[in-house]
UniProtKB/TrEMBL annotation:
It comes from Bacteroides muris. One of its GO terms (molecular function) is ATP hydrolysis activity. Keywords: ATP-binding, Nucleotide-binding. This is MoxR family ATPase. SUPFAM superfamilies: P-loop containing nucleoside triphosphate hydrolases (SSF52540). The keyword Ribonucleoprotein does not apply. PANTHER family: MAGNESIUM-CHELATASE SUBUNIT CHLD, MOXR FAMILY PROTEIN. Residues 45-186 form the AAA+ ATPase domain. Belongs to the MoxR family. The keyword Cytoplasm does not apply.
Length: 324
């Protein structure tokens, strides 16, 4: 099937803006290009991101940096074991002057919300995020409060199980478009980090950064996604990958249709970031592991044999024939 040239999107300005965004991120964070690409893909695809990595690999810095470079309201919530739902969503307070109840918004009311160490809060507080993540609204005391169009949650978590951490419920994990693992830097990158800190001059202060994208520009870029072409054979390719997760002997709980939609949206956004207005099988193959790995529950046998969700996901993707 041919791509309709009449509806082709002019991506010149878009590509320039994204390049400036990436250049600024590279000035602050050494390496992690793939992670940066994935985070931008998720934000563009109107999805929430879960960043996982050991302490000190710049998870929080990356999330703050992305929020800083997009002109939007930003808030940060540090999750702790004693955090209550009202600390996140807000609370209703009686106003003696008006003899009425006023709603005081919690930190979850912003365009981009950084939830630090999301696995430290108990189930009750985790559940408070369910509605706001999926439906972009909060219901408190019978009143529904709508979130802005841009609403995105960037969450971080530490993979090392320590005291005071709680496993995220499957239903909540499913609401994250992607789970991205940030690894250690390479030797050269670590030397570069040390050099930057040693000279101190080349360290860029977040406060001195000016936004590169306005809220309106980002929303118009999201609208461009509707015009990204996806061939029917590629939609079938996505469906076949998701079907594999449901039939595999290593997987106890496979991916839901939400995962299929997430994979399609993410591959369209990734194609845009690469300066294309059509999706290729490589786009799908690249983003699929990040969309699927946190949605699968492995069987006890697979876990005992030392398999991880990432490894199983990669195997299942490789099983499906790539459309020509």
């Amino acid at each position: 099937m041919e791509v309709n040239t009449e509806k082709r999107v002019d991506l010149t300005l878009f590509s320039e803006k994204i390049q400036v965004l990436k250049d600024w991120i590279a000035m602050v964070i050494v390496g992690q290009e793939q992670t940066v690409d994935l985070v931008l893909t998720a934000v563009l695809a109107n999805g929430h991101v879960l960043l996982e990595g050991v302490p000190g690999v710049a998870k929080t810095l990356l999330a703050r940096l992305v929020a800083r470079l997009i002109e939007a309201d930003f808030s940060r919530i540090q999750f702790t074991p004693d955090l209550m739902p009202s600390d996140v969503l807000g609370t209703t307070v009686f106003n003696m002057k008006t003899n009425d109840f006023d709603f005081h918004q919690g930190p979850v009311f912003a365009d981009i919300v950084l939830v630090d160490e999301i696995n430290r809060a108990p189930a009750k507080t985790q559940a408070a995020l369910f509605e706001v993540m999926e439906e972009r609204q909060v219901s408190i005391d019978g009143t529904t409060h709508q979130m802005g169009e841009l609403y995105t949650i960037l969450a971080t978590q530490n993979p090392v199980e320590q005291e005071g951490t709680y496993k995220l419920p499957e239903a909540q994990l499913d609401r994250f478009l992607m789970k991205i693992t940030m690894g250690y830097p390479s030797l050269e990158e670590e030397v570069d980090i040390l050099e930057r800190h040693h000279t101190n001059a080349s360290l860029v202060k977040l406060d001195s950064l000016a936004p590169v994208l306005t809220k309106e520009e980002l929303l118009s870029l999201r609208r461009l996604m509707e015009r990204v072409f996806v061939d029917r054979t590629l939609l079938q390719y996505i469906a076949l990958i998701v079907q594999q997760t449901r039939t595999s002997k290593a997987v106890y709980l496979g991916a839901s249709p939400r995962a299929s939609v997430a994979m399609m949206q993410a591959s369209k956004a990734y194609a845009l970031l690469q300066g294309r207005d059509f999706v290729t099988p490589e786009d799908i193959k690249f983003i699929a592991p990040y969309v699927l790995q946190h949605r699968l529950i492995l069987t006890a046998e697979a876990e005992m044999e030392g398999y991880s969700s990432v490894k199983v996901t990669q195997r299942l993707i490789d099983k499906v024939e790539v459309p020509k």
